[in-house]
Amino acid sequence: MKIKQYHMLVIGASAGGLNALAVVLGRLPGSFPVPVLVVQHQGGGNDSEYLALLLDSMTALRVKEARPGEVPLPGSVYISPAGYHLQLELSGKLSLSVDLPVNFSIPSIDVLFDTAADALGASLVALVLTGASSDGSKGLKNIKSRGGLTLVQSPQTAEAPQMPEYAIANTRPDFIVPLQDIGALLCRIFLVEAVNGGRQSGDCL
Amino acid sequence: MDTQSREAFEIKWLLEAIYACYGYDFRDYAGASLKRRILNRLELSDCRHISDMVSKMLYDSDFFELFLQDMSITVTEMFRDPYVFLQLRERVIPRLKTYSRINIWHAGCATGEEVYSLAILLHEEGLLEKTRIYATDFNNHSLEIARKGIYSQDLAKYQDNYLLGGGKKALSEYYQYNYDAVIMKAFLRKRITFAYHNLTRDQVFAEMHLIMCRNVLIYFNQALQNKVLNLLINSLVHKGFLVLGDKETLEFTSMTHQFDDFEPRAKIYRKTAALPKANQDED
Ligand SMILES: C[S@@+](CC[C@H](N)C(=O)[O-])C[C@H]1O[C@@H](n2cnc3c(N)ncnc32)[C@H](O)[C@@H]1O
Question: Would you call A97 and B218 a contact, using CB atoms and an 8 Å cutoff?
């Protein structure tokens, strides 16, 4: 693997995402050197607040709902609020948008990926997790074409394989990784020690 | 020059053309959603590049109207975030009751669902008759729908939110069926003045007791947010209330000292007693 500085990790997840996020984020240490932005599709209501609280209790990282105008910090995870697109502005700040759905979704993974690609180009690492949607594959391709690093959960290990399958078909990602190994790989990419143990994908929430 | 810098340059150019030609200033709107809307319009148009849209914009005012619609895509609901309406009912209304006449400004009202929600709440609390609501937006098309109070969708789906917001009846008591549509009852419409107002360039509204400005500031960059917040605070009476969108916050603006957190979870702020000189815009 070439040694390169990456400045941010962006993650897209849909059906089955809570468990997958818990497994992945559970391996990352509190000293993780970059901010993590997450779009998890939701079914309306305020479940993103709950999701942030739940994930916060399951990882060494600080997990919170994203707020507009906030500068994302290393070691923190920002979850898209339900009903808003999460975007990264060129200024490096987070922004939210009440808008039409993209790929039938608000928040949309493509929106996060495209705006992050505009802001950070090649210094971005992007990950597509489980889901029954085609969201994220266009954005992932965009990130790859700008020189960013692209990871996809292997469909066999996904609760809903469609989203990883679309992403793989569309992009030829740099890594296709079983859920269990994604956290460790991210730690190698960002040059930190993985947290041992952590959640197993079979654990119930 | 790479594609991205080229695009950024074209967008800047387009916004300058719109400003010069039509007086609408989108130059301080937050870039990410602005770009998405421009690219959507590009796709729907017969233009190849954003720069092709510039000349079309200059010579074809219909094309500008389309763009204006894109820029004010209205996604709104009745009693959206019911907790906010519950807090308005339980904590703000008792304080408004002390005034003999009440002025409310609803800035960025879109198609009006939220204003009617507020009017219903005021009615149930016995305040509607002494209240004047000014509901403004810069999208005349949306204002037209709001003014008529006619909605093609069935509003019954908002019944749950209405109840969660402290509603005590059936929402359907407030509208009538009219063929495929529903129309808000006249006594609600009568208390609302719908008017065109562009937050980026128009004046203050004087002596407001409550301003609702939800999910509008999120489209602006920090400098424009500060400027508009100044306009809002100057429109409020001493200890007046400001309600922002559920995920919006004053935390990252220059206005934190001029407002107290009245009900943080509902994003209800209150103008502080002492007003320091307005901060300069930053960003
Ligand atoms: C997402 S809607 C908010 C509707 C409602 N307040 C809610 O939260 O459900 C945003 C509204 O802001 C309006 N808007 C955007 N820029 C504006 C400006 N400069 N002046 C006045 N209204 C503006 C748009 O036309 C649109 O109707």
Answer: yes
Quote the ipTM score.
0.89
Q: Give me the residues paired with residue A38 across strands.
A: A11, A79
Which residues in A have their CB inside 8 Å of a CB on B? 65-70, 81, 84-85, 87-91, 93, 95-100, 102, 111, 114-115, 118, 121
CA angle B80/A132/B36 to nearest 5° reads 55
- What secondary structure letter does DSSP report for B180? T
Spatial contact of B271 and B259, defined as CB atoms under 8 Å apart: yes
Q: Chain A: give the shortest CA distance to residue B56, in Å.
A: 25
The pLDDT score that the predictor gives to residue B274 is 61
Instruction: Provide, rounded to the nearest whole percent, the portion of chain A with pLDDT above 90.
Output: 84
Q: pLDDT tens for residues B76-129?
A: 899 999 999 999 999 999 999 999 999 999 999 999 999 999 999 999 999 999
Tokens (6 digits) for B47: 């233009």
Give the gap in angstroms from C-alpha B39 to the nearest C-alpha of chain A.
Answer: 12
- The model's pLDDT over B9-40, given as tens digits with 9 standing for 90+, comes to 999 999 999 999 999 999 999 999 999 999 99
Q: What is the pTM of this model?
A: 0.92
- Residue A43 exposed, middle or buried by CB count within 10 Å (0-12, 13-18, 19+): exposed
What is the CB < 6 Å shell around ligand 1? A 98; B 72, 74-76, 80, 108, 110, 114, 137-139, 142, 198-200, 214-216, 219, 245
- In terms of residues, how long is chain A? 205
Q: What is the DSSP string of B99-140?
A: SSSEEEEEES-TTSHHHHHHHHHHHHTT-GGGEEEEEEES-H
Token pair for B107:
């800035």
Cα distance between residue B217 and residue B250, in whole Å: 10
**DSSP class of B264:** G
Q: DSSP assignment of A85-108, as one string?
A: EEEE-TTS-EEEE----BTTBSS-
Gap between the Cα atoms of B14 and B10, Å rounded: 6
Confirm if B136 and B108 have CB atoms less than 8 A apart: yes
